[in-house]
């Protein structure tokens, strides 16, 4: 090519070295050449060429000519080594294996003059690891040793990359590789080795061992940004904010001694991300404000005092940090977690483009997520369309972007049909335009969760069936238990809906058990159930009030060695409240939980509050309620958060305690209910329809009808949706507790279309308690005329009074017999018991 067009020549300054970038157009693609004046780089390039092909150094032009014209096997070997590296970068396993076979053929045809060397095996092992074929990489190491090719430090460092998954077997393999390297006569561990081992420990959450390796690096090598970033990211995953701050101070102290005009942002990006993982968006925003001051920041982005002091002391260091694309991406994540309006996020992306930082797919994915969370799904869809129209490879929509869009539909309840249309579009774009947006496990679980929220279990099942008809769908179902866990949650939501509608047409517990049986079938090739699977199944059994089944599920979990964990016991304790098993069983579960070394959390004590309230033990409910407050104070001390940021105990615990005191201790109990309401309002908690209904019930229990009516009027003024059935039931209870059964009957007679069987049962029980037969006959006639069917509670009450009355029929008069016969006719189920009692007495 000729270089006469100076508009295509650009000078740059990078790392203290000047070089020229010349762009020219070839027949097939645009190519960029860097002409570098740096002897050390030329020397490194020469050594790399020697290692690749085992030949003397040559100029680049002559080398290309040799490759094109010469049939020397050594040139062929070198070319194949570079092709091996290229295939590994593309993650093409078939290409890697094909090139490796060609290497073997070159070695065979050379007649012993050319052999695969350490460079060849290192490139092969690296390519296999990039293709996630770790077992083949181990086989390559064994072949290397068989051929008497000594593995070098690069070989072991490359194999350590296969140990980053964080499993126990990965950690064991990493430790064995390092021991093998330390015992080798021809190689020694270097900084890369210990950085890799540090990464292995951090991935396995072995923070203590990771800190030992970090100290070893500190004493024997210079700590680089990779090691510091890896450790601070591990602190973030553990939620240890204090250690994140300490690591930040250490890095600032190191950078203070470096006399560079600019500092790399890698560690500081990792520190901001670690704060976000700790749930501390304020600290993340405060640090970002120092290294990226040109963005808009919310007013509440004040950090804790200790961090503020550090940021002030090292302001001259932080101003030298040069933000990059990942800095902007981290800022967008902080905006998302802080709930900042998406207009600010759009402004940040526009500014980064003006600053010469090209937005990548993570940038747009986070931006789509922010826009979707604010409910602007049309704008999010237009952004995705613009990315498609732009057509640049680095910004083409990927699966993550569509998952953010689906999450937005889910959060904002914008239409299940729209979510499924987006799913179909993902498949079409992948198959037609070959984009990297094929649905993954996150896509499927999000759709199933949305189906659960919309009570569309049928659509969730149809989705799973459709996946079974495709190769990629079958792979998702085979490898991801999270899909089946989401399906079980969908069953649970459907069962809750049926419970509200008093429908028992579908045996959801049976369906859930059948699903588990399918997972355990070896021929189906499905993932094995995990702890989440059994916890969800246990919750379904408890909600179905199948407590024997719940106990058997718990025993099965123990046999499989799956937990139990805190959530398991919370479900079991919650079941005690549903089953009215009383405090004894709940205390047994709580004690077993402690015996296993599992610490109760706030939800455990909230469940104990509910059990105590259901058992009528208000003082004990209050004691457990105070336990949740102690947990709150401990969390505040541990996280150094302000009290206003924590909403413990949860509103559910408040309402459970209010229910306990609603019918306890007379006026004192009512005062406690009102005090709990005031506490919730003071903490900006939503009392909600359940809370206000409980307050109205507390007034009704004490016969304070006027107060009941005032609470109902307040709810209507606040636009709190309130069922007419519950509303009239509370009014009727107020009448009955005030011993005004005739007033209750008159009220029901005026509103027969709004009273349910519970309301009628309230009046029936009050009539029985006051021995008022005439009102009892009247309410039964009204009930019959309204077409309300007696339930089990009604029949038990009437059967009891019939037997009691019949046993006392010694001196009969016709008026009493007539009234009792009317009563018997009104309750056909109880008539037989009445007649039997009369015959026995006569």
The low-confidence parts are: 1-70, 639-648
Strand order of the largest sheet: 1-2-3
Instruction: Quote the beta fraction.
Output: under 5%
Oligomeric state as shown: single chain
Overall structural class, as computed from helix and strand content, comes to mainly alpha
Helical content stands at over 70%
Report the span from N to C terminus: 123 Å
The biggest beta sheet is recorded as: 3 strands, antiparallel
Radius of gyration: 36 Å
Mean pLDDT: 80
Globally, the shape reads elongated
Treating each run of at least 4 consecutive H or I residues as one helix, how many helices?
A: 44
How many individual β-strands? 3
Could you explain how this protein is built, in words?
- The protein has 842 residues and is an all-alpha fold.
- Strands 1-2-3 form a three-stranded antiparallel beta sheet, with no helix packed on it.
- Helix 3 packs antiparallel against helix 4 and helix 30 (566-579) packs antiparallel against helix 31 (582-595).
Short description, anyone?
It contains 44 helices and three strands. With 842 residues, it is mainly alpha-helical. α35 runs antiparallel to α36.
Helices and strands, with pairings:
Layout: E1 9-14, E2 17-25, E3 30-36, H1 39-53, H2 60-69, H3 73-89, H4 93-109, H5 118-130, H6 134-146, H7 153-160, H8 168-182, H9 191-203, H10 207-220, H11 225-238, H12 241-256, H13 266-277, H14 281-291, H15 305-313, H16 315-318, H17 325-338, H18 342-354, H19 361-373, H20 377-390, H21 399-412, H22 416-433, H23 441-453, H24 457-467, H25 471-479, H26 481-500, H27 508-520, H28 531-543, H29 547-560, H30 566-579, H31 582-595, H32 602-614, H33 618-639, H34 651-662, H35 666-682, H36 688-701, H37 705-717, H38 724-737, H39 741-750, H40 757-769, H41 773-785, H42 792-807, H43 814-826, H44 828-841
Helix pairs in contact: 3-4, 3-5, 5-6, 5-7, 7-8, 7-9, 8-9, 9-10, 9-11, 10-11, 11-12, 11-13, 12-13, 13-14, 13-17, 14-17, 17-18, 17-19, 18-19, 19-20, 19-21, 20-21, 21-22, 21-23, 22-23, 23-24, 23-26, 26-27, 26-28, 27-28, 28-29, 28-30, 30-31, 30-32, 31-32, 32-33, 32-34, 33-34, 34-35, 34-36, ...
């Amino acid at each position: 090519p000729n270089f006469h067009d100076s508009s295509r020549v650009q000078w740059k300054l990078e790392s203290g070295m000047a070089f020229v970038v010349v762009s020219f157009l070839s027949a097939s693609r645009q190519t960029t050449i860097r002409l570098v004046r740096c002897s050390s780089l030329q020397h490194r390039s020469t050594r790399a060429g020697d290692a690749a092909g085992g030949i003397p150094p040559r100029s680049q032009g002559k080398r290309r000519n040799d490759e094109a014209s010469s049939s020397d096997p050594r040139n062929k070997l070198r070319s194949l080594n570079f092709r091996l590296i290229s295939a590994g970068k593309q993650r093409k396993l078939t290409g890697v294996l094909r090139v490796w076979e060609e290497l073997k053929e070159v070695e065979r045809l050379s007649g012993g003059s050319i052999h695969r060397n350490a460079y060849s095996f290192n490139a092969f092992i690296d390519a296999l690891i990039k293709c996630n074929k770790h077992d083949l990489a181990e086989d390559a190491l064994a072949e290397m040793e068989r051929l008497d090719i000594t593995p070098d430090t690069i070989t072991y460092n490359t194999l350590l990359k296969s140990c980053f998954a964080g499993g126990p077997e990965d950690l064991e393999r990493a430790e064995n590789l390092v021991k093998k390297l330390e015992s080798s006569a021809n190689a020694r561990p270097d900084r890369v080795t210990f950085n890799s081992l540090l990464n292995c420990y951090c991935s396995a959450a072995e923070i203590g061992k990771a800190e030992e390796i970090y100290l070893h690096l500190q004493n024997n090598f210079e700590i680089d940004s990779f090691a510091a970033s890896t450790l601070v990211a591990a602190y973030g995953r553990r939620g240890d904010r204090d250690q994140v701050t300490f690591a930040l101070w250490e890095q600032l102290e190191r950078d203070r001694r470096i006399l560079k005009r600019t500092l790399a942002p890698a560690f500081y990006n990792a520190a901001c991300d670690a704060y976000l993982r700790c749930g501390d968006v304020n600290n993340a925003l405060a640090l970002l404000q120092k290294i990226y001051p040109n963005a808009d920041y919310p007013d509440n982005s004040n950090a804790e005092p200790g961090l503020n002091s550090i940021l002030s002391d090292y302001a001259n260091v932080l101003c030298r940090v040069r933000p990059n694309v990942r800095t902007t991406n981290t800022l967008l994540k902080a905006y998302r977690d802080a709930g900042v309006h998406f207009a600010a996020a759009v402004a940040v992306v526009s500014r980064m483009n003006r600053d010469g930082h090209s937005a990548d797919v993570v940038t747009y994915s986070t931006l789509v997520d922010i826009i979707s969370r604010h409910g602007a799904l049309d704008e999010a869809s237009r952004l995705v369309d613009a990315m498609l129209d732009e057509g640049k490879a680095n910004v083409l929509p990927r699966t993550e972007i569509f998952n953010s869009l689906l999450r937005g539909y889910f959060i904002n309840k914008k239409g299940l049909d729209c979510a499924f249309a987006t799913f179909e579009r993902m498949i079409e774009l992948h198959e037609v335009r070959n984009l990297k947006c094929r649905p993954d496990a996150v896509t499927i679980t999000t759709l199933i969760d949305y189906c659960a929220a919309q009570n569309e279990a049928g659509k969730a099942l149809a989705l799973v069936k459709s996946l079974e008809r495709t190769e990629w769908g079958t792979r998702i179902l085979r490898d991801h238990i999270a899909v089946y866990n989401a399906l079980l949650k969908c069953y649970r939501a459907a069962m809750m809906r049926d419970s509200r509608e008093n429908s028992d047409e579908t045996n959801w517990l049976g369906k859930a058990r059948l699903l588990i049986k399918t997972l355990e079938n070896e021929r189906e090739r499905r993932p094995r159930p995990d702890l989440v699977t059994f916890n969800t199944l246990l919750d379904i059994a408890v909600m179905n009030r199948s407590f024997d089944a719940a106990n058997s599920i718990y025993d099965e979990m123990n046999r499989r060695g799956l937990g139990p964990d805190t959530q398991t016991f919370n479900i079991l304790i919650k079941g005690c409240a549903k089953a009215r098993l009383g405090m004894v069983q709940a205390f047994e579960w709580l004690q077993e939980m402690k015996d296993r070394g599992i610490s109760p959390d706030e939800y455990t004590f909230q469940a104990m509050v509910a059990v105590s309230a259901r058992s009528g033990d208000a003082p004990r409910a209050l004691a457990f309620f105070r336990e949740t407050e102690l947990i709150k104070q401990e969390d505040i001390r541990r996280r150094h958060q302000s009290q206003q940021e924590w909403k413990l105990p949860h509103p559910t615990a408040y309402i459970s305690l209010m229910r306990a005191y609603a019918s306890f201790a007379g006026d004192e109990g009512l005062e406690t209910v009102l005090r709990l309401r005031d506490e919730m309002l003071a903490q900006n908690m939503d009392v909600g329809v359940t809370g206000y209904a409980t307050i109205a019930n507390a007034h009704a229990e004490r016969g304070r009808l006027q107060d009941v009516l005032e609470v109902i009027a307040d709810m209507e003024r606040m636009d709190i949706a309130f069922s007419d059935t519950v509303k009239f039931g509370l009014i009727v209870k107020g009448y009955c507790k005030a011993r005004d059964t005739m007033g209750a009957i008159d009220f029901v007679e005026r509103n027969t279309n709004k009273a349910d069987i519970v309301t009628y049962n309230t009046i029936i029980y009050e009539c029985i308690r006051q021995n008022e037969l005439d009102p009892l006959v009247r309410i039964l006639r009204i009930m019959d005329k309204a077409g309300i069917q007696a339930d089990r509670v009604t029949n038990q009450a009437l059967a009891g009074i019939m037997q009691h009355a019949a046993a006392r029929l010694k001196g009969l008069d016709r008026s009493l017999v007539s009234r009792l016969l009317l009563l018997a006719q009104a309750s056909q189920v109880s008539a037989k018991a009445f007649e039997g009692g009369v015959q026995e007495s006569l």
